[in-house]
Amino acid sequence: MEYSSKKAFTLIEVIVVVAIIAVLTALLVPTLGSLASSSQANACNDYRTVAIGQYATKTVGDPSYTLSSFLLDKGVTCPYGGAYSPSKDEDGNNVIICSAHELSSGGVPEDPGTVVGRSVYETYLSFVQRYDAASPEEQKAMANGSDNDSLRKALRAQYGEWPQFPQALIDKYNINVAPGETLYVQPFVNSNRDQAGYTDVVVYASVYPQNGKWYVGLVYDHEEGVWYQGPGLSVTSKWTDIKATLHDPNGRWKPLK
User: What is the pTM (predicted TM-score) of this model?
Assistant: First the structure.
């Protein structure tokens, strides 16, 4: 009788091999996931760059054509599930922000509410500061007046429409929005900003995008980067007073986080 010289694997050897494969897989999968996430973010950035170029081409024939209308007309959306919103950079140039691919300092996607809230705050604050520093002739070209309504109207003309409050947060926190209504993220600037070092911009969400309704129940804390929901307050108040109300431990305002 002939015996095979081949030696079969023992159970212990099989277990060791499986364990090694499991360890290697555990080490490799996060790396592959990170590469995929980075690749998607880069693709999204490239996609937005191309879209801005196409939009610029469209405005040659129609300067009144807004970025918001372009995004809606062309159905421009993030290929990987993020929400696109029109915005402005610090120089006033049109940009598209993505809720899924605006990275925090930790390298992870930021909350969409934080992205759109900060964008509106920084855009309006920059616009107001540029207006206040401009010559009288430049101010006339920017807006019809220095009051909040005139400045809002001028900036909104550039937006085309205020960005929408993220539907994900509406669903997550059961925010009451009537059928057919839309929450718009928009700004208010205190008229006392002519005082040295005093420029209060408050970002809030309301279903009234045209004419501001200043008593609201959704306010963005731009210092903390968090939305708050409560029984209502006036955004015409000083920011220090608003912030105190939002953070009152005995109050009824709750952070959406």
Answer: 0.64
Other beta carbons within 10 Å of 177: 14
Q: How far is CA 87 from CA 26, 31, 131, 157, 164, in A?
A: 40, 33, 18, 12, 12
Rounded to the nearest angstrom, the gap between the alpha carbon of residue 254 and the centroid of all alpha carbons in its chain is: 20
**Mean pLDDT score of the chain, rounded to an integer?**
79
Over residues 86-93, the mean pLDDT reads 70
Residues 6+ apart with CB under 8 A from 122: 90
Which burial class, exposed, middle or buried, applies to 232 when counting CB atoms under 10 A from its CB (0-12, 13-18, 19+)?
exposed
Strand, helix or coil at 57? helix
Compute CA distances 29 → 19, 20, 89, 213, whole Å: 15, 14, 36, 50
Phi (first) and psi of residue 99, to 5 degrees: -65, -25
pLDDT tens digits for range 183-202: 999 999 876 665 655 678 99
Residues 110/257, Cβ–Cβ less than 8 Å: no
pLDDT in tens, 224-241: 989 999 999 999 888 889
Longest CA span, the chain: 108
Handedness of CA 209, 212, 216, 221 (dihedral sign): positive
